[in-house]
Design a protein that fits this description.
homodimer, about 325 residues, alpha/beta, Rossmann fold, Hypothetical Protein Tm841, Chain: A,domain 3, 2 domains, 14 strands, about 25% strand, transferase (chains A, B), ATP binding (chains A, B), nucleotide-binding (chains A, B), glycerone kinase activity (chains A, B), kinase (chains A, B)
Chain lengths: ~325, ~325
């Protein structure tokens, strides 16, 4: 295992300190590294709190800031945060309008956020994100897993929270965005959890894991390496079959690298994906290409489609200022 | 070789099409993929044009836009663009105030930009960026190589060009920024050029290449893997020795991943680097952490320090809108 670390015990705490050294203008760190929060706490709005195992950066800590999350609770690598972390985050950022938990659908995360919800005083609601259509169940989840589509939920609901909408409205919006979001991923290599020290799985020289999860969980099949166009088609066909959007629907496309994939390949995949969307008569209204929901140094990518309406587009375009996403004004994918 | 591509011959053109599908609001593509340019051409300012071999994305094409480059000419992977590309870019974006070429110090790039400078009509000046202090010469360069510090030059000079400064002033500013910028990198793995199909070099299970170039060129020594703190120290000590900044100097720190390095490790390296700067009595005034000047899927990172003054800080903070860097307002590293 070759990694830029000092010791497996301090990977998380040192990485969070580095995040703070880089983004101290917008972020603060909770005691004992329990959470990362917005530096400018706004207790007059619903607080959005997410979290999960680390190793997926920039998700979630890189999505904390104006127009997205109010706090994120980082667990150890690929390990759920504990309920006391969420409780501490609520204490730090939530006010009378309450708290919305955004939870990826993994058993540990769901259970710990549920426990936290029972422990806090004010109003709390939760959204479970389960956008990964590759498998029905997995070693870590009952039902579909939450993967890169979480970004779309956090961004769109985060924008709406910034506008002052109430808890019930935001929870409903989040569930709608989740229902309109599907993802599927492929791995070309494994990743190595620091505390384990060896690759999570192994792939042959000419193999890929189709439908892989973001912890390197098995996908739906292992198959021979294929071309980018074929891979894009294998990833997007089930996504579009499941969403079944009418022709002319505006879509958000997220081409997400898993951590070890060059930008050159991600843009190439974006080109393949854009052609497929066009062939289905869909509008590529917004797109995001980069490594946003990662699996340490895993090579591969996922494709996410969220079907958008006028409201979702306006929320997506509104100002956001986090470590990983930042804009003031709309950016059209194809102007 | 496992890559998300269709064929080695079309990697560049398909990747550029994907870039355009994603950022068509701010970018346009030249005929025959000769260049990527700002969509809104401003011929009343000095045009900044850069370029170089592809495989380093987002450099340079991801740095085209308001407040940075007016155009970038992408060569094939790790191969210089040809003079006709620069000439076509000048035709497309330059006006009476002239053109400034920003060139990384590699023999092919320097030669081809020089030839282009002789072929175009209007005023032209060039800046050679040579921030890599690892080696005095290399297989591709006479003198120091141009690496991640190119980002600092393109950003600061790009901001000044946007303010309407003249060609001579901008060239002088660029040379000053280059002189105040030093970088050094380390590789934990090799990368594979698509057209070659096998890794550029090989490293043992416990080895790293200290001082590696961004094409996988040999560095100054191959050594046993070390801790993040030790690596940060080995990278920054020569950088700071060479720059010899007085205590209290405000610095820009760039922690740059080479393409296969997780964000978690880059933030951890940022933490190590920030501690070293503090120990030298330097001010971490601005910092940037991410994969900006890459070597395909190589694992490893480089550290860049630019010593800043009030002018450089103001230019750094001014609005920028490119595919890879985007902000409207200042962002302090430590507010």
């Amino acid at each position: 295992m070759k990694k830029l670390i000092n010791s497996v015990d301090t990977v998380l705490s040192e990485s969070l300190q580095g995040l703070l050294a880089t983004h101290g203008d917008i972020l603060s760190l909770g005691e004992d590294f329990k959470f990362v929060r917005r530096r400018d706490v706004v207790r007059t709005k619903v607080a959005l709190i997410s979290g999960g195992g680390s190793g997926h950066e920039p998700l979630h800590v890189g999505f904390v800031g104006r127009g997205m999350l109010d706090a994120a609770c980082p667990g150890q690598v690929f390990t759920s945060p504990t309920p006391d972390q969420m409780v501490a985050a609520v204490d730090a950022v939530s006010g009378a309008p309450g708290t919305l938990f955004i939870v990826k659908n993994y058993e540990g995360d769901v259970m710990n956020f549920e426990m936290a919800a029972e422990m806090v005083a004010g109003p709390v609601a939760s959204i479970i994100v389960d956008d990964d259509i590759a498998v029905k169940t997995s070693p870590h989840s009952t039902g579909r897993r939450g993967v890169a589509g979480t970004l779309a939920v956090e961004r769109i609901v985060g924008a709406a929270a910034e506008q002052g909408r109430d808890l019930e409205t935001l929870a409903a919006l989040g569930r709608t965005v989740n229902m309109r979001t599907r993802s599927m991923g492929v791995a070309l290599t494994s990743c190595t959890v620091p505390a384990v020290g060896r690759p999570t799985f192994s792939l042959g020289e000419d193999e890929m894991e189709m439908g892989v999860g973001i912890h390197g969980e098995p996908g739906c099949r292992r198959q021979r390496m294929a071309s980018a166009d074929e891979i894009a088609d294998e990833l997007l066909t089930p996504v579009l079959d499941d969403l079944a959007p009418p022709r002319g629907t505006p879509c958000l496309l997220i081409v997400n690298g898993f951590g070890g994939t060059p930008m050159m390949e991600l843009y190439l995949m974006a080109n393949s994906a854009a052609r497929i969307l066009a062939a289905h008569g869909l509008i590529l209204a917004r797109s995001l290409v980069g490594s946003f929901v990662t699996s340490l140094e895993m090579a591969g990518c996922s494709l996410t489609v969220t079907t958008m309406d006028e409201e979702a587009l306006a929320l997506w375009d509104s100002p956001v200022h986090t470590a990983a996403l930042r804009w003031e004004a709309p950016g059209l994918a194809q102007a």
